[in-house]
Prior knowledge:
Layout: H1 5-12, H2 20-47, E1 59-63, H3 68-78, E2 83-88, E3 102-106, H4 112-125, E4 131-134, H5 149-176, E5 181-186, H6 199-221, E6 231-236, H7 262-274, E7 279-281, H8 298-308, H9 317-328
Parallel strand pairs: 1-2, 1-4, 2-3, 4-5, 5-6, 6-7
Helix pairs in contact: 1-2, 3-7, 4-5, 5-6
Amino acid sequence: MATWLIPLCQRSIGAPGDSIQVLSTTFYASLITALWLFGFLDRKIAYGQPRELDWENEVVVITGGAGGLGKIMAEMYGMRGVSVALLDVREPEWESEGMAGVKFYRCDVGKRTDAEKAKGQIEKDLGPVTILINNAGIVNGKPLLQLSDEDIQRNFNINLLSHFHTLRTFLPSMLASETGGTIVTVASVLGKLGASSLSDYTSAKAGLIAMHNSLLAELKSTSAPAGAQKIRTILVTPGQLSTPLFAGVKTPSSFFGPVVEPVELAKEIVRMVDAGESGNISMPLYARWIEWLHVLPAGLQRVARQMAGIDDAMEGFGMHRNAAKLGDGVKGEKQS
């Protein structure tokens, strides 16, 4: 590793092996090497060997791919010539040049019948699905008592039940394949926190995290299907994204919770998928350590939430959403 170059260079210019400079740099290099080794062993024990991908035969499905994070990932794969199926209720607005492998399928993933219909057409056009990126999402942004029955039902249909629908639709063919597949679950760090005016959204995201972990356990505990041990799973729990989904949300604290650029998150998701790895992606830094918040006494948790401004972020969101709908001629909800 590169860290060993420092003590080696020091020795090459005649520095004594027992000098404080050589000893300190050797200790540092040893520490970094040990941490890397422990991380490697941890990933191997938890997730096994990386999956080998053959991009000539890979077919990527991205739900909520008409805009935001989903659209960016579709563009990344499309520019590489990868076969991509976009599932959304609205058609994406982009230049089709250089994106011949990307096909749009109008599909409400909150309905199992729509997912099944899309599967048949995708397999006919592109082939069996090997990579499923569940990204579709909507936000109501209302206090609990202001949510209508329709708001609640639609939230859970898109933000939670759609994942069950797509998994039940596309997972069987991955299990039957000797090459397995990759499943990406785009949840949210709010699924671990909860937030004011997001009771429906955070409940669904918490359900996604639990569902993803249960799916991982099920795949580990079965070996009957040919591809069970070659299916890789990636759980994504980002903070606030700079996408249309949360446009109008007041950034609570640029220090405690900086906004995540969707391009950076898309790069990390694509990198992990390309590497055939399983794992978790949490951005920004605080999202990786948020579970430790629950270790604190309740009073300190409350102070931390106030300092971060979590529960004030949705103020004005409804007015922004209404203004956007008026400006767009009320085009309806976005699944991205």
